[in-house]
């Protein structure tokens, strides 16, 4: 068999007890880099990454969280020996009949490999805030299969509008997804996430259908995903959102609203039907509050009951409102991102003014991701059907 995922299942089923065993193993050997309260997060994230069942976007999110823990707790190469031994001992204790002697080497080598990747991720991320927990204050059904979660972090999150951060629910320990806050930083510190349940996804249906107020979620470091306003100077903006890709673009609108001199912004929101438009009330409030510089345009691709002017795909609607000199930002499902890369430059949008959300489709250690993060001013802070597999909200997960 030699399948680490099957042997890990028993430990995840008794997650808190397994994490205690993992931590106690290292404590007994006077390896005290890991605070006890963080042991469940570290243990399950490392275990899931070694098991290797997740897609690229999820692995990147997990490595971002593990890399930040690696950096903040000051892990050294020699720590890898005892971490691997602790993982082998813990998984063996909880695996039952799924344990085979050959798995000892599989887990040991896997832990060393993932810890090397985490060290590399730590170097990419640089200094920044620690991973933290947040309490779910509200979980509101916004449309069929879409929920808006309001989370109060234990410590104020450091992020910029347009960034995304890894999010994990202890109901699915160690499986992380990228979500972009739908708001600019608030005085009360709360953060709003827009989550669409992806059929068959391990995380998003749990967040939408099962997570309730009072529960905790784990929050990793915010990272740039190509949607930072700093890249556009003071240009007017054309923001193009598909599905829950609206979340980071709504945060950008709030950022513009807080600036001394607001620039002209056109926000084009695409949805299949009117019933699928999940954030209509918030959009109405934004449009009413900032009517002097903000224009909100709705596009419905599969609804023939709306006004003819509102029928059509979101990119066509966006191009009808494009003006030379605008900076164009696109966030949504991977299909929308790829279509935007092709269609918008062909229609006259300057390539250097086009900013699209990253979809994290390459493997976690890819040079492309590393170079993108190194070029970002800072890194600290799941997206529709393929979002769970490939993207952030679209850069919001599965």
What is the topology?
Blueprint: H1 4-13, H2 15-28, H3 39-51, H4 56-72, H5 79-95, H6 103-125, E1 132-143, E2 146-153, E3 165-168, E4 177-179, E5 191-196, H7 204-209, E6 216-219, E7 237-242, H8 246-257, E8 265-271, H9 280-289, E9 294-300, H10 314-320, E10 327-331, H11 334-346, E11 354-356, H12 367-375, H13 387-390
Parallel strand pairs: 7-8, 7-10, 8-9, 10-11
Antiparallel strand pairs: 1-2, 1-6, 2-5, 3-4, 3-6
Helix pairs in contact: 1-2, 1-3, 1-5, 2-3, 2-5, 3-4, 3-6, 4-6, 5-6
InterPro entries: Cbr1-like_FAD-bd_dom (IPR008333), FAD-bd_FR_type (IPR017927), Flavoprot_Pyr_Nucl_cyt_Rdtase (IPR001709), FNR_nucleotide-bd (IPR039261), Globin-like_sf (IPR009050), Globin/Proto (IPR012292), MRET (IPR050415), OxRdtase_FAD/NAD-bd (IPR001433)
Pfam families: FAD_binding_6, NAD_binding_1
Protein name: Oxidoreductase
* Cα Rg: 22 Å
Work out the number of β strands: 11
> Poorly predicted ranges (pLDDT <50, ≥5 residues)?
362-392
What percent of residues adopt helix (DSSP H or I)?
Answer: 25-40%
**Class from secondary-structure proportions:** alpha/beta
What do the pLDDT scores average to?
89
Shape: elongated
| The CATH architecture of the domain at 229-357 | 3-Layer(aba) Sandwich
The share of residues in extended strands comes to: 15-25%
Q: How far from one another are the termini?
A: 28 Å
Number of helices: 13
CATH overall fold name of the domain at 229-357: Rossmann fold
CATH superfamily of the domain at 229-357: Nucleotide-binding domain of ferredoxin-NADP reductase (FNR) module
CATH class of the domain at 229-357 reads: Alpha Beta
**What kind of sheet is the major sheet?**
6 strands, antiparallel
SSE arrangement, N to C: HHHHHHEEEEEHEEHEHEHEHEHH
Main sheet: strand order: 4-3-6-1-2-5
Region (Disordered): 365-398
Domain FAD-binding FR-type: 129-238
Pfam families: FAD_binding_6, NAD_binding_1
Organism: Micromonospora fiedleri
């Amino acid at each position: 068999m030699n399948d680490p995922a099957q042997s890990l299942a028993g430990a995840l089923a008794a997650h808190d007890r397994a994490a205690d065993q993992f931590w106690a193993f290292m404590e007994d050997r006077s390896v005290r880099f890991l605070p006890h309260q963080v042991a469940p997060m570290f243990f399950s994230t490392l275990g899931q990454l070694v098991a290797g069942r997740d897609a690229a976007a999820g692995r990147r999110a997990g490595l971002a969280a593990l890399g930040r823990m690696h950096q903040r707790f000051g892990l050294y190469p020699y720590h890898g020996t005892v971490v691997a031994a602790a993982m082998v001992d813990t998984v063996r204790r909880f695996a039952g009949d799924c344990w085979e002697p050959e798995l000892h080497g599989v887990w040991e080598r896997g832990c060393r490999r993932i810890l090397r990747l985490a060290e590399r991720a730590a170097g990419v991320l640089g200094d920044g805030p620690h991973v933290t927990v947040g309490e779910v204050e509200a979980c509101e059904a916004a449309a069929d299969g879409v929920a808006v979660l309001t989370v109060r972090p234990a410590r104020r999150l450091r992020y910029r509008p347009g960034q995304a951060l890894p999010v994990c629910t202890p109901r699915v320990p160690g499986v992380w997804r990228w979500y972009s806050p739908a708001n600019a930083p608030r005085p009360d510190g709360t953060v709003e996430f827009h989550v669409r349940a992806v059929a068959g996804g391990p995380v998003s249906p749990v967040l939408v259908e099962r997570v309730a107020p009072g529960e905790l979620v784990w929050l990793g470091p915010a990272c740039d995903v190509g949607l930072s306003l700093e890249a556009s100077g003071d240009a007017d903006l054309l923001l193009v959102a598909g599905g829950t890709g609206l979340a980071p673009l709504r945060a950008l609108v709030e950022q513009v609203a807080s600036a001394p001199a607001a620039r002209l912004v056109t926000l084009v929101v695409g949805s299949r039907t009117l019933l699928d438009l999940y954030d209509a009330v918030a959009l109405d409030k934004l449009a009413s509050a900032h009517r002097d510089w903000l224009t909100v345009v709705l596009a419905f691709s599969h609804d023939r009951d709306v006004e003819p002017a509102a029928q059509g795909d979101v990119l066509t609607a966006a191009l009808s409102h494009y003006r030379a000199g605008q900076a164009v930002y696109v966030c949504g499902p991977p299909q929308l991102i790829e279509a935007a890369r092709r269609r918008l430059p062909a229609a006259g949008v300057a390539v250097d003014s086009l900013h699209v959300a990253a979809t994290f489709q390459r493997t976690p250690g890819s040079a492309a991701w590393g170079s993108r993060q190194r070029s970002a001013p800072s890194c600290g802070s799941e997206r529709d059907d393929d979002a769970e597999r490939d993207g952030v909200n679209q850069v919001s997960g599965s």
